[in-house]
Amino acid sequence: MPRIGDLIRHATAVKRQTKKPYWRQLVEIARLASGTQRLSPSEYYELGVFDDAAYTASQKLDCVGWRASAEIDRRLNHRYWRATANDKLLNYALLQHFGFPTPRTQACYSPLGRHIGAEQRPRTREDLEEFLRHRLTFPAFIKPIHGSYGRDTYLLQSFDSAREQFVDAHGHDVPLRDLLDICMNSQFTGMLFQDCLRAHPQVRALVGNTTSCVRAIVAVPPTGPKVHMAFWKIARAHNITDNFCMGETGNLLAWVNKESGTVERVVTGLWPDGQAVTQHPDTGQTIQGATLPDWQAAMTMCLAAAVHFPGLKLQHWDVAFCEDGPVLMELNTEADLGVPQYLGQTPFIDPTIREML
Description:
With 357 residues, the protein is of the alpha+beta class. The longest helix has 15 residues, at 4-18. It is globular and about 70 Å long. 31% of the residues lie in helices and 20% in strands. It starts with a helix and ends with a helix.
């Protein structure tokens, strides 16, 4: 439940910013909370739905928050198919089978012996320790098979065998024993050890040497897949992942024109604390107005991959723009649909989504 004090502050800020009186805000909140999408009072403010310059009265009824996001995902994505996205190992195995570019996996640690392809396959703690000591090549990215929001991920640059310490991308020590303990977490069902991708020179010039992926939201109606929305998750230098987490990580989000690949809006967070910016804070380069390289090839690849997951009618593809071309990082479901809506200042529900529902 939102705190009353926060809502009062939001209402006051909206009145100051837009001249919209309190009573009109209250009427809109009641109308949207009781509407089909059940938008909450806090979402009315934080997602900018109060803004009459961005949304007409009818468009506001098509704006979604977390309740509608969960319901839309439930209705469009069959539960039997979710593992093909949520299980990273399975997803990579399928993508590799169908010939799509993915990050190269050096090894898959799995107590059950699961694997993607021809990568190394440590199954025990002893196997994994031997691999980490002698065969892991750097730089290496490590992530759980079952994980989310970039938690328990590592970007390692080197290993000091005398101290039994890895050194991560920020120069911090990661003890070998601690890393092994993390990998043994049964909730992860294993760990993937991958090569780090090298960003396309144009991307690297804009945002630095980070893996900052575009999220392409693909709808799959009976007529065939189409890109519904696209946005860029832009990592800061102090982060090894591009996860946004409602602005808590310090990373940026950018709305991308799905037809041209041109960045049209960049924000640091949700309203009222988030700010619209034009430049990357670390590189000083202007992001807004830039066009991402290989855009049409990337979107074509997402649409081609989407047809292989027919039980998922609303797919969220993360694509990295690399030196050798676009790379599919992963497929997601159960995403927050309000955030891209806020970025693009356009309702998530459009005629295509409405027909699918």
